[in-house]
């Protein structure tokens, strides 16, 4: 064709121009790849940055899920504080309610500062942030977190009185405390922020110690832990 | 986004043609054509462009319904949300009714006792005056017409509420649409539980710290006298002439709660003189924040 002479006339210029173009394109592609990678990093930390964890982080997942977990313990403890006829049960209930209410407020405060919702989303399973939560189906998450009472169980608790109420409250709270340990322990080991790891550790240690107390109080009242 | 491939055009107008020519001719000549390289680079460029676009869209989607200082009311991104500004902190007694301006109501004077909103699915309709107080604490209330929403549709709504803090659900007899979602000052009516706006509404408004009049207000009802197993029933009849109007005349400013909302107008002009000082404190308990 017509390019034949041009080509044969200037083979070296042609080659130089061509490789220059290739370099230019390569450079642009590198930039584009870089931009895409940057965007992916941003995606991994939406609403977050170097200081703030993103929505799929352990810090956010733990804070949201543990807050939801705590809110139910607060509800159950408030119920016991409200209507138990047993001074020791009422005192423990007040201890649990006030401690977890304060912790729940810490979670909510952190999440607000991180620009994240203060509660676990209603349309997604819990505990997906625990990537190696082998015992709960990997990263798929769960609808009901370990230790959580169902609405039916809460309604049953509300309907009980006297010793029956005290025993069932202690049973539900014991299971609730035990159920939260795995999450707390995972976050204590893996969360990014030191203050998250610290509170997770305190929850893990405090609740583990309190399960001993709950078990003792339960047996004192003739009850035994709920079957798993 | 597609800059990598686009640059081929303008800048490569000449160079590109040259490259093609060169490539073509070099098939004949001794130099091997860099087709493999070109294809590879193009593939990488397309992939990178795709990843960039995907991430960009995902980031926007994630932020769209998350409240922030730049996006205080994410429900503005949702079609069909009705917004009305209501004065908070006006309490009525258990025996009083409020002449609500909306059905279901989503703001205005309310009972001093809030309906339990800690993920409760009420099987029967609950008194409006208690439900509105639950909204003031940041919950989202899903109301549905029991004649129109049943079976699978009902179950889909329940999974969004049951055991989820700051969510509450109840039938609402005579509701003009199958489903109506309420948060304080916000309402969205939809025909189906599959409508994507249901989750968008919940994401945008549940315990939204910019819009909730009393962030941190509790949802459980211990010591308030409200029994979620036996809540005060919904009253279908229109309220009478003695009902508390929407401006709160005759209601009591919530003493304990008013202190926490210093800048918003707590009491309507001329409120409270009619009722005795005692009733408000009889029904309102200090809400632990």
Automatic annotation (TrEMBL), chain A:
The keyword Cytoplasm does not apply. Keywords: Membrane, Transmembrane, Transmembrane helix. It comes from the Bacteria. The chain crosses the membrane at residues 21-46. The keyword Transmembrane helix applies. Residues 59-218 form the DUF305 domain. Gene3D superfamilies: 1.20.1260.10. InterPro entries: DUF305_CopM-like, Ferritin-like. It holds the Pfam family DUF305. PANTHER family: SLL0788 PROTEIN. This is Uncharacterized protein (DUF305 family). It comes from Actinokineospora auranticolor.
From TrEMBL, chain B:
The chain crosses the membrane at residues 35-57. The keyword Membrane applies. InterPro entries: DUF3105. Residues 262-289 have a biased composition (Low complexity). Residues 209-289 are annotated as: Disordered. Pfam families: DUF3105. Keywords: Membrane, Transmembrane, Transmembrane helix. This is Uncharacterized protein DUF3105. The lineage of its organism: Bacteria, Bacillati, Actinomycetota, Actinomycetes, Pseudonocardiales.
């Amino acid at each position: 064709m017509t390019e034949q002479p041009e080509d044969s006339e200037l083979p070296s210029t042609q080659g130089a121009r061509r490789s220059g173009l290739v370099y230019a394109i390569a450079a642009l592609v590198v930039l584009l790849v870089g931009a895409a990678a940057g965007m992916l990093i941003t995606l991994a930390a939406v609403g977050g940055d170097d200081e703030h964890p993103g929505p799929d982080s352990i810090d956010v997942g733990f804070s949201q899920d543990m807050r939801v977990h705590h809110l139910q313990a607060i509800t159950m403890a408030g119920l016991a504080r409200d209507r138990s006829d047993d001074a020791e049960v009422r005192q423990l209930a007040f201890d649990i309610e006030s401690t977890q209410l304060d912790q729940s407020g810490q979670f909510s405060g952190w999440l607000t500062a991180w620009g994240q919702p203060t509660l676990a989303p209603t349309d997604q399973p819990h505990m997906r942030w625990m990537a190696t939560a082998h015992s709960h189906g990997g990263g798929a998450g769960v609808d009901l977190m370990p230790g959580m009472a169902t609405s039916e169980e809460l309604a049953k608790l509300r309907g009980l009185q006297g010793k029956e109420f005290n025993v069932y409250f202690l049973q539900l709270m014991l299971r609730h405390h035990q159920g939260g340990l795995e999450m707390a322990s995972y976050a204590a080991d893996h969360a990014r922020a030191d203050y998250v790891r610290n509170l997770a550790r305190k929850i893990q240690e405090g609740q583990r110690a309190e399960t001993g107390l709950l078990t003792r109080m339960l047996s004192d009242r003739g009850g035994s832990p709920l079957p798993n | 986004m597609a800059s990598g491939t686009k640059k081929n055009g303008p800048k490569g107008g000449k160079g590109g043609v040259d490259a093609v020519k060169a490539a073509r001719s070099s098939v004949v000549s001794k130099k091997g054509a860099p087709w493999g390289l070109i294809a590879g680079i193009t593939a990488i460029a397309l992939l990178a462009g795709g990843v960039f676009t995907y991430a960009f869209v995902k980031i926007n989607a994630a932020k769209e319904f998350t409240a922030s200082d730049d996006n205080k009311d994410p429900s503005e991104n949702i079609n069909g949300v009705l917004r009305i500004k209501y004065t908070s902190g006006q309490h009525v007694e258990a025996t009083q009714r409020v002449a609500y301006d909306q059905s279901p109501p989503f703001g205005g004077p309310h009972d001093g006792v809030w309906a339990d909103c800690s993920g409760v699915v009420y099987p029967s309709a609950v008194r409006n005056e208690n439900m509105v107080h639950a909204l003031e604490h940041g919950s989202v209330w899903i109301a549905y017409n029991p004649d129109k929403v049943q079976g699978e549709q009902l179950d889909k709504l329940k999974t969004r509420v049951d055991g989820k803090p700051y969510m509450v659900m109840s039938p609402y007899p005579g509701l003009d649409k199958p489903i109506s979602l309420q948060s304080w000052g916000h309402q969205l009516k939809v025909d189906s539980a599959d409508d994507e706006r249901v989750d968008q509404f919940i994401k945008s408004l549940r315990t939204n710290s910019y819009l909730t009049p009393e962030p941190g207000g509790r949802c459980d009802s211990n010591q308030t006298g409200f029994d979620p197993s036996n809540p005060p029933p919904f009253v279908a009849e229109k309220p009478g002439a003695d009902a508390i109007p929407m401006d709160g005349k005759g209601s009591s400013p919530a003493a304990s709660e008013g202190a926490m909302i210093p800048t918003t107008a707590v009491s309507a002009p001329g409120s409270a003189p009619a009722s005795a000082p005692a009733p408000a404190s009889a029904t309102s308990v200090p809400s632990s924040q």
